[in-house]
Amino acid sequence: MMAAAAAAIAVQRNLFAVVVLFGAYSFLMATVLVALDAVDVAMTEAAVGAGVSVVLLLGTLHLVRKEEMKPLHRPPLPLAVAVATGVVLAYGTLGLPAFSDPEAPIHRHVAPRYIQDGARETGVPNIVTAVLASYRGYDTLGEVMVVFTAGAGVIALLGRRRRERGEKRR
Amino acid sequence: MRDYLVLRVVAKILIAFMILFALYVQFHGDFGPGGGFQAGVIAAAAIVFYALIYGLPAARAVVPEGLVEAMVAAGVLLFALVGVAGIVLGGNFLDYFVLHADPVAGQHRGIFWVELGVLITVAGVMLKIFYLFAGRRVEDEEEVR
After folding, report:
1. Phi, psi at residue A138, to the nearest 5°?
2. Which chain A residues have a beta carbon less than 8 Å from that of B102?
3. What is the pLDDT of residues A99-158, one digit of tens each?
4. Residue A15 and residue A67: Cα distance in Å, rounded?
5. What's the number of domains chain B is made of?
6. pTM score
7. Chain A: closest CA distance from residue B100 (Å)
8. DSSP symbol at B93
9. Which H/E stretch holds residue A14?
10. How far is CA A92 from CA A44, A46, A86, A102, A106, in A?
11. Residue A20, SS3?
12. Spatial distance between the Cα atoms of B115 and B113, rounded to a whole number of angstroms
């Protein structure tokens, strides 16, 4: 179903349908993440991907035309680059350890310590929260900084225009 | 969409539960799934929903733009201040063990405030971006007139 939604997004020229399909894709992705036991990520995907970003895309849609323009030319080189990158990435997955293999390097580094000592050291039963907020506090602070920078960037890009015009009106 | 009575009534009921759910996700994040980021997005989505049904000016009246802009910065500052508090109390930056006599309780306290900072910034940024995108339309209509 996700492949069908992705293909439809690529083919569809009506932008409203594309936005709706994006929402559907996000919900499908969220169900996949739930199936992978990543409930925290699934929650984020459902709220951000299917909720807020669809509203933002709809808001943008009001500013632009409803139909996507036909591409002026069909360049073969970018297609070749995209396909080649996809093939290389698919080849790279062959080198990964088997899915949910307990002997994989990522499960042997710090994860056992988090799982064994996390609840005792932090008193927080949800390991995801313990790792995010406590063990990886620096990373989370960096993420919040990224969100802050994104907001500041949008304010700088879109907010100034209004202020300039408001001054002109006075 | 202000004319649809059903939507207005349903929205009025649902938004209260959405905010409640956001708070649940925020403060129950220690025990169940969730945390500051998810709660911030859900809270912002509740306000966006309100704006969709009742119009942007009504949402701006509930959550003024100045407050949203302050939230964007306040969350980051709160997060960083928790880190600085760790230094002041004799630990490292973002060291929660020193925030309370009992290290585990200190961890709890640190995570609580950090997650609150994440919530405030994420909700603020989401709302600010929405306000700016939705506000452009009104401006351009004015321009046409």
Report:
1. -60, -45
2. none
3. 766 676 666 666 676 776 666 666 666 667 777 767 777 788 888 888 888 888 888 887
4. 6
5. 1
6. 0.72
7. 12
8. T
9. none
10. 28, 29, 10, 20, 16
11. helix
12. 5
Q: Residues 61 to 120 of B: which have CB under 8 A from any A CB?
A: 69, 72-73, 75-76, 79-80, 83, 93-94, 96, 103-105, 107-108, 110-111, 114-115, 117-118
Sorted by sequence, the CB contacts under 8 Å of residue A57 that are 6+ apart come out as: A19, A22
Can you read off the two tokens belonging to residue A45?
Answer: 């995907």
Domain that holds residue B75: 5-144
B134 → closest Cβ in A59, A129, A154: A59
Q: Which residue does chain A place closest to B38, by CA atoms? A: A44
